[in-house]
Write a structure and sequence with these properties.
single chain; two-stranded parallel sheet; 20 helices
Length: 434
């Protein structure tokens, strides 16, 4: 009896893991397919969740079906039909839709599989643009994208961003309500509107990647899961919009940056800066993929788009066999181009670093001091961090220590704070002659 009970428990646990894995892969397709039918992203997500619950109840008893995505879609569609039939306020057109759906379900699994694939690319693209609609706040776009496209639960998103679950839940609820109240259509824009809206989509994907690549707060320097989700979104987007150079530029940037993930962490989880990394640990497959994506962006005439330029900067680093081989003059020129195309104080700070490496620390410090006097980066910890590094190279160790301590006080990431405090201590020992 004991063995049989243990077997059942193990089988149920295995089925649950299978359901969760399938959900992570298929949820975006199911939500997108239901949203196309219902024209309501929030309602589609609710029905997809119902299908997930049904899978959790059914699959441990029956086993995972041959086509779990089709199973989830069929279950979601049945829920949609039931909902439509129950809703007395729906018009005749919706009743006709319900009849059509019922006929489709009666067609059998083979036809259903085909139906699942029909227009799924358009549906996914519509879902991406809807989740990243400019009518939503940045935080809401990020949360909704991770939920709808990434299949992350509310607790998973909350853990990734170190915010309370209730905050994430409220963001998602408000986002759905905002989309409904604004009557945002479930469709991918075209023409000039598509160009404008694509910028919002790329911004969301890159924000997710950056939070994984350099965590804003917490005890971890990286959150690889967010990087992987952003890469997945970017690759899907590139497959759906193969003629958009900036999409390939963003994918190239993320692939190349992600190639350094393993080398950015030391044995104890400590942060390892670019010039100190073991380049043998860089992922060559991701580098090749990134360089290929960059080439596609350039072939499409997008060499000077903001993301393609950042990818070219990242490519310059990975092409150097050693830190000493880095072409800093080319990097400074690329940052010049980026600063003209997309001016921002953060780009100027990065440009100052490249200039310092190409032409000496004093040249970089002059640029950083201009930024500091502007006050536009007040509260941004990387400004005193860079300034401290340049001052240390110039032998002005007491000033460098003070800047590293200032940077350590500003960052909310524990690993980054440890590194900055370590550098402050090294400067203090150097100033004392030890």
């Amino acid at each position: 009896m004991g063995d049989a009970s243990e077997d059942r428990t193990a089988g149920a646990a295995a089925a649950r893991r299978a359901v969760e894995a399938v959900w992570r892969i298929e949820s975006a397709r199911v939500i997108a397919g239901l949203a196309r039918l219902l024209r309501d992203v929030g309602l589609a997500e609710d029905l997809a969740q119902d299908a997930l619950v049904a899978a959790l109840e059914t699959w441990p008893k029956t086993g995972v079906p041959d086509n779990p995505g089709a199973w989830l879609m069929a279950t979601g569609r049945r829920r949609a039909i039931d909902l439509i039939r129950r809703n007395r306020r729906l018009e005749d057109k919706q009743q006709e839709l319900a009849r059509d759906l019922a006929i489709q379900l009666a067609m059998g699994s083979a036809d259903l599989d085909a139906a699942l694939d029909d227009d799924i690319g358009d549906d996914l693209l519509s879902l991406i643009f809807t989740c990243c609609h400019p009518v939503l706040s940045t935080e809401a776009r990020v949360a909704l994208t991770l939920r709808m496209l990434g299949g992350l639960t509310t607790p998973e998103i909350a853990r990734a961003y170190l915010v309370p679950e209730s905050t994430v839940a409220q963001r998602i609820v408000r986002a759905k309500r905002t989309l409904a109240e604004a009557h945002v259509p479930f469709e991918a824009p075209t023409g000039a509107d598509r160009t404008d809206r694509l910028g919002s989509v790329l911004e969301v994907v890159y924000l997710i990647f950056n939070e994984g690549y350099s965590a804003t707060a917490g005890d971890d320097w990286l959150r690889p899961g967010l990087c992987e989700d952003a890469l997945r979104f970017g690759r899907i987007l590139a497959g759906l919009t193969p003629r958009e150079p900036e999409v390939h530029g963003l994918v190239a940037l993320m692939e190349i940056q992600a190639s350094r993930t393993a080398a950015r962490i030391g044995p104890s989880g400590e942060a390892v800066l670019l010039l100190d990394q073991d380049r043998a640990r860089w992922d060559q497959m991701l580098i090749r993929r990134g360089l290929a994506a960059l080439e596609r962006a350039q072939d499409l005439g997008g060499a000077f788009g903001p993301y393609a330029l950042q990818a070219a900067i990242a490519a310059c680093h990975v092409r150097a066999r050693t830190a000493a081989d880095t072409d800093w003059e080319r990097l400074a020129a690329l940052y010049d181009a980026l600063a003209q195309l997309a001016p921002s104080p953060v780009v100027q700070l990065n440009r100052a670093v490249a200039v310092s490496m190409a032409f000496g620390p004093q040249a970089g410090l002059d640029l950083v001091d201009v930024l500091e006097s502007d006050g536009t980066l007040d509260g941004y910890h990387l400004l005193p961090s860079v300034r401290g590094d340049l001052l240390a190279k110039l032998g002005r160790l007491d000033e460098a220590r003070a800047d590293f301590e200032r940077a350590a006080a500003l960052t909310r990431n524990t690993r980054e704070r440890d590194l900055l405090q370590q550098r402050a201590a090294e400067c203090a020992r150097g100033a004392a002659g030890h």
